[in-house]
Amino acid sequence: MKKIGLIGGMSFESSLDYYKIINETTQLKLGGLHSAECLMYSVDFERIEVLQHENKWEELTDIMVNIAKKLKDAGADFIVICTNTMHKMANAIENRVGIKVLHIAEATGEKVIDNGLKKVALLGTIFTMKQDFYKKVLKEKFNIDVIIPNEADSEIVHEIIYTELCKGIINESSKEKYKKIIKNLELNGAEGVILGCTEIPLLIKQEDVDIPVFDTTTIHAVSAVEFALNK
User: Fold this and answer.
1) What letters, b where the CB count within 10 A reaches 16 and e where it falls short, cover 115-151?
2) Which family does it belong to (predicted)?
3) What domains does the chain contain, in order, with CATH numbers?
């Protein structure tokens, strides 16, 4: 089994799920008392969040590259970034560190195509929804059309992520807001919805909406095990 290098802590709420799903999936596939060989570098998310909102992406890239180097030096065979937004620097990590980054948008795109869908909604941070680094992968590699919420709804999605979900706060009122936003996107032609922030699955489940839900946390964590076990 390849050794998985996890970059976590963004937030630790979803990183907990990554660790749990990766090990549960490993045990399911290998049986017995098997668990995953993995290393995790968990950041102080307060620092990361400030830099994100200050638009200091070059500094963030340097941080992520340095972490990936440490994981590679410690024996990691590939990198799993336990958050959607920070895949903005996935290519920089691969180019500067010389290690494979298992891209969350690629893993998710494969699932969308497997379900026969061509147009999906994307929920996530403002950075993930509005910038091209995520949508570009889905369009260029899978020919998947992506729609996002309107300006006001995007702000709601973003605010709930940072002020509630990243702190482990689950409010029924926030769930209802998300459900309403997803319904509006469905009415605008979305055939499915990508939960493009690893905290959103804490709030929204498949039973909450009428269209297929793509839980990027689970998809990415399971794909990490599959890649690790692939000879």
Assistant:
1) eebeebbbbbbbbbbeeebbbebbeeebebebebbee
2) Belongs to the aspartate/glutamate racemases family.
3) 4-103+219-229 (3.40.50.1860), 105-215 (3.40.50.1860)
Q: Which of 25, 26, 83, 108 is catalytic?
A: 83
Annotation marks residue 82 as catalytic: no
Predicted structure pTM score: 0.94
Residue 43's closest CA among 25, 63, 14, 58?
63
Whether 197 sits among the annotated catalytic residues: the reply is yes
